[in-house]
């Protein structure tokens, strides 16, 4: 890759400003898990035979690409109060939602993904739950959920929550951690009070730099003096009107695995900022240094790095806004159709920005068509897209989706590799077989 004199220091910012100069050595290429034993070096004839038909646009396929038909394969398991989630880890419990089960404009609670860092609390009685606001504030407060409802404006908002590691499974070389594919994201309707309103009532003092969030879950070791996770926000972000202290999800009490009875919802930033089982918000005069705030957790290198490169801890920066992204929710990957037309639907979002357009391709990115795109229901919500695509002849196809936000930043085909497998916003691809 050519050296850029004015390249920004952060790898994410660099890719946003210089997508055309990114190459395989710096950013890597999409490499999908081979869960069905498909050989990466298979020839065209073998690939077509396994897929069950010809590949009309095979000449446009990027070198080394594994068809999306082989990117799925994990079996669903049942979780109480959830529907169809795929469990990645049971200690702590982490489970994602297959894309086709995220087709609703508002994600049902039953299909909201689960991301835990510790052992969830067993006592989640909403009537006795309290939230403490302290630190650099004029009026430290301890509030019940009823106090929050009585003393502050109660609002409902559709808000996207996405794990910073969503898409980690597709990094090569592999990154440690839960191997999320696509489904560590959701957009439910949350009810609560604005975090900013509560902080204002407490009186944030001059010198405040960061919030610190604490919760009732326990460290996996079971030791009471160890926290599983305690992250925070810069004061400027915490005072934004889009962040909620939520006590309801889709008009009902929160699901136990989604933070009942009280949690933060911070749209557009990594889901780890949206502390579950919330018990305390402390205002600090420094960047918070709780568990999963230091070292390499929820951080990316401050410069582009080669796949597999070792990066010193001091060269990592905290992830803030999440990148532009889209997800095809219909059709389900590996769909077979008889006609030559197909309606495609999905969602798009971009951190704390708005998505301007979504484009679809059926010829491996050689050409693109615009999809119809809705406006967000409110700041922090995802947007829904749909379009009717046509196929010229029977065979194997892939539908690709690419979103572009209001700053002109588009999703890439190549992943900006990083050691912890964060911020994967490459195109979503689904496999479609058109029968003759």
From TrEMBL:
Keyword Oxidoreductase: yes
Pfam families: Mo-co_dimer, Oxidored_molyb
Needed co-factor(s): Mo-molybdopterin
GO molecular function: heme binding; molybdenum ion binding; molybdopterin cofactor binding; sulfite oxidase activity
Moybdenum cofactor oxidoreductase dimerisation domain mapped to chain residues: 318-433
Domain Oxidoreductase molybdopterin-binding, residue spans: 121-290
PROSITE patterns: TAT (PS51318)
Entries under InterPro entries matching the protein: Ig_E-set, MoCF_OxRdtse_dimer, Mopterin_OxRdtase_euk, OxRdtase_Mopterin-bd_dom, OxRdtase_Mopterin-bd_sf, TAT_signal, TAT_signal_bac_arc
Keywords: Metal-binding, Molybdenum, Oxidoreductase, Signal
Iron keyword on record: no
GO BP term, pick one: sulfur compound metabolic process
Matching NCBIfam families: TAT_signal_seq
Protein name: Molybdopterin-dependent oxidoreductase
Species annotation: Grimontia sedimenti
Lineage: Bacteria, Pseudomonadati, Pseudomonadota, Gammaproteobacteria, Vibrionales
């Amino acid at each position: 890759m050519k050296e850029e004199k004015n390249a920004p220091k952060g790898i994410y910012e660099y890719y946003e400003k210089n997508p055309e100069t990114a190459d395989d050595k710096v950013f890597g290429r999409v490499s999908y898990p081979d869960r069905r034993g498909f050989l990466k070096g298979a020839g065209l004839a073998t690939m077509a035979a396994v897929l069950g038909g010809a590949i009309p646009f095979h000449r446009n396929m990027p070198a080394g690409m594994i068809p999306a038909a082989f990117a799925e394969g994990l079996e669903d398991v049942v979780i109480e109060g959830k529907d169809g989630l795929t469990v990645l880890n049971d200690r702590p419990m982490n489970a994602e939602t297959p894309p086709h089960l995220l087709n609703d404009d508002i994600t049902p609670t039953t299909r909201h993904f689960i991301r835990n860092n510790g052992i969830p609390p067993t006592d989640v009685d909403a009537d006795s739950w309290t939230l403490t606001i302290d630190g650099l504030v004029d009026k430290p407060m301890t509030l019940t959920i009823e106090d929050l409802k009585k003393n502050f404006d109660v609002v409902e908002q559709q808000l996207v929550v996405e794990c910073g590691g969503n898409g980690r499974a597709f990094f090569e070389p592999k990154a440690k951690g839960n191997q999320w594919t696509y489904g560590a994201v959701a957009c439910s309707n949350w009810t609560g009070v604005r975090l900013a309103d509560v902080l204002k009532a407490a009186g944030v003092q001059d010198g405040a730099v960061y919030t610190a969030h604490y919760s009732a879950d326990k460290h996996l070791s079971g030791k009471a003096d160890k926290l599983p996770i305690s992250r925070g926000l810069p004061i400027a972000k915490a005072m934004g009107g889009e962040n909620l202290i939520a006590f309801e999800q889709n008009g009902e009490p929160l699901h136990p695995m989604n933070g009942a009875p009280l949690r933060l919802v911070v749209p557009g930033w990594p889901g780890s900022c949206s502390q579950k089982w919330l018990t305390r918000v402390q205002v600090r005069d420094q960047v918070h240094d709780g568990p999963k705030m230091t070292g390499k957790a929820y951080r990316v290198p401050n410069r582009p790095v080669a796949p597999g490169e070792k990066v010193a801890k001091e060269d990592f920066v905290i992830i803030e806004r999440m990148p532009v992204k889209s997800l095809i929710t219909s059709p389900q990957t590996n769909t077979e159709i008889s006609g030559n037309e197909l309606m495609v639907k999905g969602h798009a979002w971009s951190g704390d920005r708005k998505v301007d357009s979504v484009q679809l391709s059926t010829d491996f990115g050689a050409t693109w068509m615009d999809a119809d795109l809705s406006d967000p229901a409110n700041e922090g919500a995802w947007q829904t897209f749909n379009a009717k695509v046509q196929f010229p002849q029977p065979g194997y196809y892939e539908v690709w989706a690419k979103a572009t936000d209001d700053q002109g930043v588009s999703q890439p085909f190549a992943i900006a590799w990083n050691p912890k497998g964060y911020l994967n916003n490459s195109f979503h691809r689904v496999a479609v077989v058109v029968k003759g």
